[in-house]
Amino acid sequence: MEAGTHAREAGRIRSPRRVLVLLNPLAADRHPGCATALAAAAADLELFVPTGADAQLQFNAAAEAVEAGVDAVVVCGGDGTVAAGFALTAGTGIPLGIVPAGTGNDFARAARIERGDPVGSLSRLLDGLRDGALRDGALRSCTVDALHMTVTTPDSGQSHVWVANSANIGFDALVNARANTYRRLPVTGRYLVALLRELPAFRPARFRISRDDQPPQNLTATLICVQNGPWIGGGIPLAPAADPRSGTAVMSTVDRIPRLLLAGLFPLIYLRAHRLLAPLRQHRVERVRVTVPSSVPVYADGEEILPSSHDGAEVEIAVMPRAVRLIQGLPD
Question: Hey, which residues does 317 pair with through a beta bridge?
């Protein structure tokens, strides 16, 4: 962790603002200018920057800093890093700044946060946090919804996961897992290549699903996706109606379909030809409970939550309205 010095102005010393910066190591490697931006900001801000290649240890150090007290949290990375920022700030009122520096950046796209210049975005965000700029209105903030996932398995008991953009169960999760290995391809290209590679061995599964106050239903489905924002896979608009300020999520299910149609599923969605996909069903939901059979993976924001090796699980996803105070992004 690094600490900045106190700034001097007009002959008096002002207390620096305490800012936690959670920097994804891959993003730091891809954008070395971020280190320069942090060094420049440390003259006026008291920065806490947990380091290390172990994501869990890095997050634990970040959580300790938040517990000790910070004025803002800034995350720099992709959707998985944004989800970590949600986990650190949801329900606390601590403002969260997002610097998109991942491959998909789907939540940043949904929140209308500037993408494409991580170093410049980090510099501008830290500049804006100096001298009480957030308090004084130089930086805009708004509140957005978060998804809270509870996963219960026979072996591991119960775990809790904060989700920023999407929770993915079934075929979409398999594609996500394989796409993560194709880092040299453009993000949408890797998603489509992964789809074609997963297709031959894929089999739909039998789920038990209940949403809100509706009675549970058994469904043989290809995938189940619950979204806080419209996009998955680096810009595939699976749920155009999803809005992270609506107080609801959009649940998409795809029934059992022939492989040929499954191969064209995401390309058609990418072209916004949803009306041609009769097996695609979408509902606005506040809470969803899914009984996930063994060997069906679960992902959230591009990160593995349950591997294909699990022996069955109960997954509950609840919308937490206005849980996160977001810096910049969507206007009020």
Answer: 149, 288
* Residue given tokens 């809270």 in the structure block: 148
Let me know: does 298 contact 306? Beta carbons within 8 Å: yes
The Cα–Cα gap between 310 and 324 comes to 31
Residue 84: beta bridge partners?
none
> Looking at residue 232, what DSSP letter applies?
B
3-class secondary structure for 238-283?
CCCCCCCCCCCEEEEEEECCCHHHHHCHHHHHHCCCHHHCCCEEEE
* Torsion over CA: 248, 86, 84, 154 (sign): negative
Residue 89, CA distances (Å) to 71, 84, 115 in order: 11, 9, 22
Rounded to a whole number of angstroms, the distance between the first and last alpha carbons of the chain is: 34
Q: What angle is formed at CA 1 by the lines to CA 48 and CA 92, rounded to 5 degrees? A: 30
Contacts of residue 56, defined as CB under 8 A and 6 or more positions apart, other chains included, come to none
Round the CA-based radius of gyration of the chain to a whole number and report it.
20
Contact, 47 vs 19, CB < 8 A?
yes
pLDDT tens digits, one per residue of 98-157: 999 988 899 999 999 999 899 999 999 999 888 666 655 567 889 999 999 999 999 888
pTM, 2 dp = 0.90
> Over the stretch 233-261, which tens digit does the pLDDT of each residue have?
888 899 999 999 999 999 999 998 888 88
Distance CA 198, CA 146 (A): 30
User: Are residues 328 and 125 in contact, defined by beta-carbon separation less than 8 angstroms?
Assistant: yes
